[in-house]
Amino acid sequence: MWNIRMRASKLANGHDEKTDRTKDIHISGAEGIFSENEIGRAINQYLKRAFAHSRGRPDKIFFTIEDVKQLPMKVPILTVTTIQCSTKQEAMELTTKRLLELGIEANAIKSAFKIINSDFAIRGAALIKMKSGIRSDHDIERGIRVSRLGIEGDAGRKLSRKLTKLNINTTRVKEALTLASKVAYHKDVIAEICISDDPDYTTGYIASKEFGYIRITNIKSHGDMRGGRVFFIKEDTDVSGLINYLEKTPVIIAT
Asked: The pTM is what?
């Protein structure tokens, strides 16, 4: 098996004085675990995505193709639900209510929304402790990049049939669900909240072992380029172990 990762970016105006490098803006990314004979098809699909994103045309596209030497863990896929909200306020209130039901404190939820609604977008996910609201990842600009994940052929086909019945059989939903399933499987993750930075996509989601993957419509305004991803974790989490699982441990979503 091979892990393929793509990141597309474009140069931004300005200069990062800390690193003495030209700043770049993230345009799109994609990742999966594939057999050797699927590599060409996967790269083609990722290239098309990089050139067709609503955030603009990239001027850099990076591919990493890595042999998966460790036997992947098999993880079950989360159940899928969509909740229709007519306004952003309704969506935010519903999201907050569900997170509170999981025992996540209001100050932790407030910290998460502050990160997501910031004009400064981190490239990955932030780790927020569920009681104290303390951010626990070590790189404020980068965050945590969930990586080394894919979906079994049979599980993928079964998922496509299920999502087709729900009228949401898109690459975006399938990939987000795959990522959320890996994240939720870890014992120290209580919940995830994700709002896309795509200005044309206004449906976000919350995910948890307790209630599965819940899509929430109109969670942001059309044209808003802000977004982000936050994982709420237990107070006594072994953060280094969790980061190693999220970024390095290969996981295949199975039936």
From this structure: 0.85
